[in-house]
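User: quick one, fold this
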Amino acid sequence: MSRLQVVSGKGGTGKTTVAAALALALATEGRRTLLVEVEGRQGIAQLFETEALPYEERKIAVAPGGGEVYALAIDAELALLDYLQMFYKLGGAGRALKKLGAVDFATTVAPGLRDVLLTGKACEAVRRKDKNGRYAYDCVIMDAPPTGRITRFLNVNDEVAGLAKIGPIHNQAQAVMRVLKSPETDVHLVTLLEEMPVQETADGIAELRAAGLPVGRVIVNMVRPALLDEAALDLGLERAPRAALAKSLAAAGLGGARGAAGRLVDPLLDQAAEYAARHALEASQREVLAGLDLPRHELPLLADGMDLAGLYELAKELRHQGVA
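Assistant:
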């Protein structure tokens, strides 16, 4: 299991939920995990039903296996102050820059600087050790930007290292890339069984591979339960025994008299046709994902919606499938 688990995916696929469930699953194995948020949406706080996360590492859960989940919402401005203090010992001068608005200006205007700070802070947590030489965290989980910009986000330090040929900026950028392009890191892609998310996942994987970034697993989220078995689908809806179906509906007390039950047959078959079309689409998208030659896992659509109990349920499923 790699020590830095980066979770990305097209917007709406539930990548934050999967990242949080992965952190819980690892903690259930007894690991001390850090769940990192880089987009400022406070999605982690909402999932764990806690107050908004500050720019500090805070314990948000203790798993049944004894492991702990810490969380950190990285603030690019404060991360820049950390960076200035670490390499240039600015101290009060750094705080003065913040008051003057220079820090906000730098993180907003300078191309790529924000991503440099976000990835740098996460990698620092991966490398950090205590006074006994043990890693502070067994695993760091990053809820990363969407698939469309994940490669540039992770690869920005390569560009910085090329621009700054010497000095602390160059050295820091190289140190970050040594983590991101090493066996310590895996980038997981979250998708749905729909054409656009699957295509974006395939494109994202190709870009990550071209950049030399390590791709981990494909996690298919919100998979609907099977309602009709293959035998029913193979029968063909156009050949469905309509009279027998109406009789069965009447016997079940649906529609009252037999004639009324017969009027339910067409709406029922229409729904079955929609299901069959959806089933065919999902099957075709599974074939596309299978061609990516990566481990693939599926998480169920939770009928009651997503809450803290649902998060633990997904964590249990990830463990069952051997992801954690």
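User: anything notable?
Assistant: The two ends are 8 Å apart (CA to CA).
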